[in-house]
Amino acid sequence: MKINLKVFSIILVFTVIFVFAAGCDLQSPKEKTKESTATDTTSTESDYPEYLNPTGYPIVKTPITLKVMVAKQPFHADFNEIKVFTEYEKKSGIKIEWDQVPASNVSERVNIVLAAGDYPDAFLKCGMSNDVLLQYGSQGVFIAINDLMETYAPNFSKAIKQLPTVIKGITQHDGNIYGFPYINSISHVAVRKIFVNKTWLEAVDKPMPSTTEEFYEVLKAFRDNDPNKNGQKDEIPFTGQGGLNDVIRAFGGAFGLYNRGSSSQFDIDESTGEMRFVPIQPQYKELLQYLNRVYTEKLLDNEIMTNDLAKMAANLTSNISGVHATWVNQAGPYTNDYEAAPALKGPNGDQMWTFVSGTILGRTGFVITDKNKYPEASMRWVDYFYTDEGNREYFLGFEGETYEVTSDGKYELLKSVTNNPDGLSQPQVLGKYTAGGGGNNPAILNEKYFKAAEMHPVSQAGTQILLPYLPKEVWEPFTYTLDEIKQKQALNDINKYVNEMTAKFVSGQSNFSEWDNYVDTIKKMGLDDLMKIEKAAYDRYAKN
Q1: CA 2 to the chain's CA centroid
Q2: Are 479 and 171 a contacting pair, CB within 8 Å?
Q3: With a threshold of 0.90, does the pTM exceed it?
Q4: Among 18, 170, 374, 540, which residue has the least CB neighbours within 10 Å?
């Protein structure tokens, strides 16, 4: 099955606002007259464990306690005090004994407890790699949920049945699903963009560029004509936060590359129908030559190789950069001067926007282990966050405390959240009520309740501009066998070499006369073996 992003304003919007409505109650808080319950299944009550209530709340007949490790961001309150969980404990009858690990250290901590065998009943928001998920899933440490989810997680089950790409991306080679995923249903999150300062365009008397060459001319005008009007030649025309990666993905479509989305170095050669490795294609060389010109003429931030979000945002807020490529318009919350550029037409006539990701933001929002004595209750517990009510509480908090419902039925954060009188940031305020910040959630991210920078009007307008040029299919991340994982690790030097040489070609440290040697070196490093692994993974993905 293919994701046709053009047909329905991107498949990520799924079924209107969020597809999990198929198994949920979509009434507003004002319309509700009784407490929501999980969707009925075909199972009879006699099929359920004695301790468990098959539907409704509380989930269990007698209160139980689960030990859960959670990744805690700096803006999260103590998880014992976050209201979504304190209220849910009263409702569900399930108390969570939290092991709160700083998000910056959670990967290391997860690996330690798993290796030592001293792991909890479940992991929440811990963002494990798929390699870890498969390794411990195949050992039985993480339980497979696919045979249980229709009975004990009916809302989640109904949602993913309508999302074939999600099923493809979370099903391992052994046919099992080992975790509850974080799913994106918002096109504005999936479609990344190049944002251009309209005020700067007016200052240099240039229209919004439509081709890569016009874009180059705009950057030159920004460099030479003092568009920030401070009398200094301090402009850094073009910047970004993700090293060269974001810049390359942003321009890939103009050179006919990354036609299955930006999350893989592989795509399909449309002339042959065969998989190809993008970094050795002639078009990739052309792309790097273009970026080399932009870089060496100081039109692209010469610190791009080491840039991060903070550095990029500093350039924007100090008004020394007029263009940035990234997930969201970082200037958006502060000014409407920015506008997303269209899909640029490249030197060979290619015009495609491939700086787009799939629907799966993570596979390990919630993972249940074999130490858990109540896996059925744990599944019912997490299934709540795939309902409309649970999703709203998880991301927005509580009506009258963090948000209000407007007269036209929209959900808006209160000013005490967006402009807190105590000087707290929006994440800090919400972190007392909700757990959604920081990602890796067992939930569906949906436009109705998500209020971050991706939802700024500048970003939303940019998505509409780019929709006609999106790929016909966007791949979710592939899954691999344990043997393939070992082989890929052995071949990891290929990616390291590609990254190293890409940076050298763009910066001018390596001459393009070395291109053929670069390609030959990659082939000798085992590219054919890597291609076989990726092809096998793709074949499984296509069949799921």
Answers
A1: 19
A2: yes
A3: no
A4: 540
